[in-house]
Amino acid sequence: MQVTFLKGDGSGEHMAPAAGTWQRVGPLSALPSVLRDFGVDPAPILLASGLSPDSLDDSEALIPYAAMGRVCEAAVRLGKVPLIGLLVGQRARSGGLGVVGRLMQTAPTLEDAIVDLVSNHQRYVRGGVPVFLNSADPAILTYTIYDEDVVAIDQIFDGMLAAACAIFRELAGESPVEVRIAHRSPDDAGAYRRFFGAPVVFDSEQSVLVYQRSQLAAPVRGADPAAREHLLREVDAYWRIKEPDLVDRVNRLLAAGTMGGAPGAKDVARRLSMHPRTLDRRLRERGLLFRDLSAKARFHLARQLLMETGMSVTAIGLALGYADISVFSRAFVRWSGLPPSEWRVRRSVAPDDVPVKVAAE
To answer: Strands of 125-126's sheet, edge to edge?
Structure first.
């Protein structure tokens, strides 16, 4: 497995990232120490997931997004650490986010710090996407995975939510008022309540941190307007990696907006500041159709919920914006060749024998 590194010497110079989806090591840096705390040598775990023993030593490094899931899966299966995602996420600190973490440290309020994180996320990660919905009360921060090849989805959700919670506490002392997680309740659900300090709802349609609007106004302890102006310029100059290409940007928007009904081509084109015909033409130049990307996003989220949660098929269809469960079932058959209930049963007994790639509509 090839790992591509960014220079971590503060020079602002970066090597080109690996193709496809990838994850900056930063939030995973604590994984070896968590394993050692359980008496587990991290080297065999990393090797079993296709990574070298030193892959997590540099927080500025990039690893394939799917490798993050594989290393979590190996930690659970081989290391017998069932809550590895939660435990690693708990140790996250803003300093592990590099220059953007330093920018967050100077933000005037928690809301500004969260915006700093979310607006720069595409430069850190390709494969998952956070969305910050801060116009209503309460406000929510969601995390969605759109990489099709990832395993240990439950661990990734745990890790990302715990990391965000830990960093926001560090910066402003605020904890969420509720946490919703899109996987089944684990054996030790109390560990989640103890860390988050809030009600935790499992089998949720989304993985979410919930904050009251009043909490977002909490001042960041290191707020520094002068330093912030400097860091805003540094952030602009720091990123030398290639911006996400069109297909990845479309996939991110579809992943972020599919819950409640997939966004249409006009809406996605507007978010990309282009005409719908331009979007259609540029996708066709890559041999792609918007409707196929949209179907893939819906199928991907549907099968995540079928695999990871105990939600009913009806509830999953409603979560995806289907008012009529029969319409959802017909769509799922088009995507996979199986009704959702049968797909779920087969997946539970023979996971390698069910389709995980959507057929073109």
So the answer is: 62-64, 22-24, 125-126
Q: Is the pLDDT of residue 6 over 50?
A: no
Q: Phi and psi (nearest 5°) for 188?
A: -105, 65
Res. 10 pLDDT band, cuts 50 70 90: very low
- Kindly indicate the confidence band of residue 17, based on its pLDDT and cuts at 50, 70 and 90: very low
| Other beta carbons within 10 Å of 260 | 12
Please state, in angstroms and rounded to a whole number, the distance separating the CA atoms of residues 315 and 312: 5
Q: Which of 154, 153, 144, 151 is nearest to 185 (CA)?
A: 154
Give the amino acid at 245.
Answer: D
Helix H segments across the chain? 31-37, 42-48, 65-77, 84-90, 98-105, 110-119, 121-124, 153-172, 189-196, 213-216, 225-238, 246-257, 265-271, 276-285, 290-308, 313-319, 325-336, 340-349
Residue 280 has pLDDT above 70, yes or no: yes
d(Cα 90, Cα 160) in Å, to the nearest integer?
9
Q: pLDDT by residue (tens digit) across 45-92?
A: 999 999 999 999 999 899 999 999 999 999 999 999 999 999 999 999
Using alpha carbons, select from 213, 249, 198 the residue that is nearest to residue 137: 213
Q: Residue 346: helix, strand or coil by DSSP?
A: helix
Single-letter residue type at 267: D
Q: What are phi and psi of 22, to 5 degrees?
A: -155, 165
Type of residue numbered 116: D
What is the pTM (predicted TM-score) of this model? 0.90
The answer to which of 81-95, 123-137, 217-231, 343-357 has the lowest mean pLDDT is: 343-357
Quote the tokens at residue 10: 């503060």
Q: Are 55 and 25 in contact (CB under 8 A)?
A: yes
Cα separation, 159 vs 181, whole angstroms:
11
* Rounded Cα gap, residues 176 and 178, in angstroms: 5
